[in-house]
Amino acid sequence: MSSIRVRFAPSPTGYLHVGGARTALFNWLMARKQGGTFILRIEDTDVERSTQESVDAILQGMEWLGLDWDEGPYYQSANFPLYKEHVQGLIDSGKAYKCYCSAGELEAKRDLAMKEGRKPKYDGTCRQRADQPPNDPFVVRFRAPQSGVTSFDDLVKGTITFPNEELDDLIIQRTDGTPTYNFCVVIDDAIMDITTVIRGDDHVNNTPRQVQLYEALGFPVPQFAHVPMILGADKTRLSKRHGATSVIAYRDMGFLPEALMNYLVRLGWSHGDDEIFTREEMIQKFDIANVGRSASVFNPDKLLWLNAHYIKTGDPERLAKLLIPFLKERGIDPKQGPDLAAAVRTLQERARTMIEMADAIKFYYHPPAAYDEAALAKFGKDHLGAVYQAVSDKLVSTPASTAAEYDSVFKDLCTEQGWKMPQVGQPVRIALSGGTQAPGIGEIIVVLGKEETLQRLAAIIRKL
RNA sequence: GUCCCCUUCGUCUAGCCCGGCCCAGGACACCGCCCUUUCACGGCGGCGACACCGGUUCAAAUCCGGUAGGGGACGCCA
Fold first, then answer.
1. What is the ipTM of this complex?
2. Chain B nucleotides with an atom closer than 7 Å to a protein C-beta
3. Average pLDDT in the A273-280 region?
4. Which residues in window 323-382 of A are less than 7 A from strand B by Cβ?
5. Is the C-beta of residue A236 closer than 7 Å to nucleic acid chain B?
6. I want to staple A183 with a disulfide (CB 3.0 to 4.6 A). Which of A17, A108, A158, A172 is the partner?
7. Taking 60 as the threshold, does the pLDDT of residue A1 lie above it?
8. Is A203 left (phi over 0), alpha (psi -120 to 50) or beta?
9. Torsions phi, psi of A237, nearest 5?
């Protein structure tokens, strides 16, 4: 049994967006699951719109997600001579012909057809043309069958059949001599021995044309798997106006790659009621047969939930490393202050993104510049001085080193003084962090250290 | 307009191929309660869907037909 070969073939006209990433993911999963080969191919036949920056952005996105490829990146632009050769071959065998209709004429005919409610397809003007004006610009068209049907068995959608009357003679080479997409994919997929073409279902309509080309060229037709689109909240194709679509933008918003991967794999695919998948589990459980047939709406809330999950269960040391750039942006140098991983640990259950984590972690590195006055007022500013002093004294006189030990220091103090816990805990939280939303008091003190804690208590006493 | 595809809670989905276990299960979100020194986490519970109409059948979310709605394609873009 020969092993499968799949490919992800983005065109470098922008960054890697979530739709593309999921297509890449399904390809990668299929290859990894079956021990096949995952190929990356850059479809840059549109010289005008293709840029190196886009190529870099796409590679960066894939690397961030951990979608490693086995071959490539190959560039279609490197294959131009090969395409030309095949175009000529098709012309020689009468399966393609030169068309001298101008782009303007064609456009006018198309508009007219649309207006009259007809299918806007090429009318075949040059199909039987005998003369070949030597100096006129021309395109090359594929001579497509005009009757019968073309069908293929799609791995996710089942058998799809198109009447050939619907398909016109598509252009395979432009006036400037460059080949077009539908032709290049076929040649490339054929010469790269691609066994399974997994791509977005916006390509279903291209498939019958490609099948015809495979046949005309004498290449074996690969298997196809068209995965449904990803839609925005308004159920139209996901685009910038729905918010971030770039994979890298999600990184910058503080998402973890494993969270995005997990989110993406569940969009259109499922394995029973499972929601959380490690990379290994995805690979092990993935089956293209379980990919759904209908489009799905991108749900940022669920992504956020997954991200929270991975932050909660992640390794603090790793999270600390990932957090550093976010801290830098906020002018925090994690070397000046408590151990970052220790600080991270106290916020893992409280932050849903690295941004939230970075914002919440600030107070460990900078003493509060201001206090939540409204909250302070609630506890009666007059008594606060005594409370802080008592806490400070108790801390000095009682040995403690773990969060639990510090917590019991506070409990003991409350018992001794007849205070209620919230009356002490909240003010102390404000003294240490500036506000009322923070990790547990004991946890904070352990991270901050007793010395710093006492200093912050002294500071607030001075300001009362 | 024409062709192709799709249609289970607001959203992601299980179930559908091989009808009965489904007066439809899970997850996100939302609401309530519990836990709790704050905020969270967590636990428990609630809300909430088989697009519609016909047919087949003892029995249909599951099979068949139609209707409606949505998406996609119709490019010398990919």
1. 0.94
2. 1-8, 10-15, 25-29, 37-42, 70-78
3. 95
4. 349-350
5. yes
6. A172
7. no
8. alpha
9. -45, 130
Answer yes or no: is A204 CB < 7 A from strand B. yes
Lowest-pLDDT range of A122-126, A252-256, A356-360, A405-409: A122-126
As given in the structure block, the two tokens for residue A39 are: 């190929």
pTM listed for this prediction: 0.93
Give CB contacts under 8 A, 24+ apart, made by A133-139.
Answer: A133/A100, A136/A100, A137/A100, A137/A102, A137/A175, A138/A98, A138/A99, A138/A100, A138/A175, A139/A98, A139/A99, A139/A171, A139/A173, A139/A174, A139/A175
Give bridge partners of residue A96 from the DSSP assignment.
A142
pLDDT, mean of residues A338-353: 96
Contacts of A168 (CB under 8 A, 6+ apart): A121, A122, A124, A144
Contacts of A271 (CB under 8 A, 6+ apart): A277, A285, A286, A290
pLDDT digits (tens, 9 = 90+) for A176-209: 988 999 999 999 999 999 999 999 999 999 999 9
